[in-house]
Amino acid sequence: MEKDFELIDHTADVGVVAYGADLGQAFSNAARALFSLITELGDVSEVIYRDIELAAPDEEDLLVAWLNELIYLFDTENILFRRFEVTVLDNRLQARVYGEKVDSSRHQLKTGVKAATYHMLGVSKDDSGCSVRVIFDI
């Protein structure tokens, strides 16, 4: 895979297509895309981590649950994440995410992201890897 993710045009919201060799990597890159909307990832240190476990009926629901869990942690604990170790198996996700609390002297917040939505949601797999598409409500 040459690229991790790309932003896509969408009226009033922001869309992301993330890529990976497997579903875990695609979910990880979608999370990186999410936090790249919020701040500059290069300014975020990896001084704390959180473990996340989720289950959902299908991969699309799991993607939305994953991204919304990260938004929830950002909103409630004021944590910016920059690295995501994700395993997806049988519609279950296990992850360890690394980052730090927002420090207004070092982190410039760019975009407020409210939620990952089901609009245009997609998960694709083929011989070259996986991709996921999600639209964020901003």
- The chain-level mean pLDDT equals 94
| Low confidence ranges | none
Distance between the termini: 28 Å
The coarse overall form would be globular
Major sheet characteristics: 5 strands, antiparallel
- Just give the CATH class: Alpha Beta
Count helical runs.
Answer: 2
Helix content: 25-40%
What is the correct CATH architecture? Answer: 3-Layer(bab) Sandwich
- Strand-pairing-aware structural class: alpha+beta
Instruction: Assign the CATH topology.
Output: Archease, Possible Chaperone, Chain: A, domain 1
Radius of gyration, taken over Cα atoms and rounded to an integer in Å: 14 Å
Overall number of strands: 8
Give the full name of the CATH homologous superfamily.
Archease domain
- Beta-strand content estimate: 35-45%
Overall tally of domains: 1
Order of helices and strands: EEHEHEEEEE
Describe what you observe in this structure:
The protein is of the alpha+beta class and 138 residues long. The protein has a single domain (13-137), classed as Archease, Possible Chaperone, Chain: A, domain 1 (3-Layer(bab) Sandwich), CATH 3.55.10.10. Helices cover 25% and strands 41% of the residues. It has 2 helices and 8 strands. The strands form 2 sheets. Strands 1, 2, 6, 7 and 8 form a 5-stranded antiparallel beta sheet that branches. The longest helix has 19 residues, at 59-77. It is globular.
